[in-house]
Amino acid sequence: MKIYYVYIVKCSDNSYYTGFTNDLERRINEHNGGVNPASYTHTRRPVKLVFYNEFNDVNQAIQFEKQIKGWNRKKKEAIINDNWELLPELSKNKMKK
């Protein structure tokens, strides 16, 4: 069975990048190796893997990646720190603004 990963890396400028891959180690090495000069992480190297989640279903992985990409920094940091229970409250605060 193939495994897919949704991951977050912390860039050298303290920003976060969220991605999706079927080979996590290779992908992180590509980010740090500067394989694609047009990529977001190219000028923000080195990057450090701070979160990943495994999926057996490629569609679920893609959906989760898109969801995280729409999140603010506080929500991303909540899952990075394994504080999933904070997500509903952080979502409420966003809706009030």
Oligomer: single chain
Named at the architecture level, the CATH assignment is: 3-Layer(aba) Sandwich
How would you state the average pLDDT, rounded?
94
Task: Give the CA-CA distance, first to last residue.
Answer: 43 Å
**Structural class determined from secondary elements:** alpha+beta
Kindly estimate the percentage of residues that lie in beta strands according to DSSP: 15-25%
The major pleated sheet works out as: 3 strands, antiparallel
Number of strands: 3
Number of helices: 4
User: What's the CATH C level?
Assistant: Alpha Beta
User: What is the H/E string?
Assistant: EEHEHHH
At the fold tier of CATH, the topology name is GIY-YIG endonuclease
Q: So what's the overall shape?
A: globular
Low-confidence runs of at least 5 consecutive residues? none
> In angstroms, what is the radius of gyration?
14 Å
What strand line-up does the widest sheet have?
A: 2-1-3
- Helix percentage range: 40-55%
User: What number of domains?
Assistant: 1
